[in-house]
Amino acid sequence: MNPNPDAPPPPSPSPPTDVHAPGSRRGRMLAESAVVEEVQVWLEVNGEPAVTWMCTPDQLEELATGWLTTW
Fold first, then answer.
1. What is the pLDDT of residues 3-43, one digit of tens each?
2. What pTM, to 2 d.p., does this model score?
3. Helix, coil or strand: residue 67
4. Which DSSP string do the residues of 2-61 spell out, in sequence order?
5. Which of 21, 27, 33, 63 is surrounded by the fewest CB atoms within 10 Å?
């Protein structure tokens, strides 16, 4: 309850100003930066194709390592 009915309403919250670089998992993203780019990535084992993914082009080494440890 507002103790002074003639007082102006409190200001609206501001959008976050602590927006991190694309690919960062910290903070919030603005709607304009929420578009995800996917590329075709394939993995070869001993020169033979093993798997093809459509994925974001970051953390590919981790993706391949995880896939190979469960293969």
1. 677 777 777 666 555 555 565 556 555 666 667 889 999 99
2. 0.49
3. helix
4. -S-TTSPPPPPPPPPS-PPPTT--SS---GGG-----EEEEEEETTEEEEEEEE-SSSHH
5. 21
